[in-house]
Amino acid sequence: MNRTDRLYAIVEDLRAVAPGRRSARQLADRYEVSVRTIERDLDALQQAGVPIYADVGRRGGYTLDRTRTLPPLNFTPAEAVAVAVALRDADSSPFARAAESALRKIVAAMPVREAAAATELADRVRYLAPVSAPAPRQPVPSILEEALAKQRVLRLLYADKDGTLTERDVEPVIFMAAPKGWYLVGWCRLRDDLRVFRVDRILTANDLGEPVPERVLTLPEVPDHVIQVARFG
Hints:
This protein is of the alpha+beta class. The protein is 36% helix and 26% strand. The protein has eight helices and nine strands. Strands 3, 4, 5, 6, 7, 8 and 9 form a seven-stranded mixed β-sheet that branches. Strands 1-2 form a two-stranded antiparallel ribbon. The longest helix has 15 residues, at 3-17. The mean pLDDT is 81.
């Protein structure tokens, strides 16, 4: 069991027995690691804000305050990233630390596979610096969000700034926000190169059911003025 899985399992173990206690030795035996490793794990969880408390004495041990924790949350990767994007505006507020802590707790409560997928998806959502929320415009269609999250090829009917229409098969790479709205950056098969598509100029979009090739799964070099919106951990 890797450390991330073990941390998650420890929290759920303590939740299951609360208000009872588990000793460090019991946890070490259960997860086949040293007592010192368990103590480091518990310290890391406490530092992350998990309400774990220790009682000393012969019947002492570690306990979890169930009234201050949530059971496992069934957030999808896209939902977790949506929360991260929404919390991005808190960075300049007095609640910046609280927002960061809330996001860490959400990701910590997710199953390991979904948390990893959310982390990868978060790296594909960017803002132009300086960061500012896009002006209110046409919302991003769900099919674009799903295609980016699932890495599926899209067929777009797109109108350029002059109103010229083209049909393009696009392999989505990242979403990018700017003052004029959201953009989809993707590999355009028509132009055989990366292109930037303003979302409100995408007239139709269809999922072709084709996985994006491996060459696009590797993020391109991103300029310094394009920064990551959401960071987990």
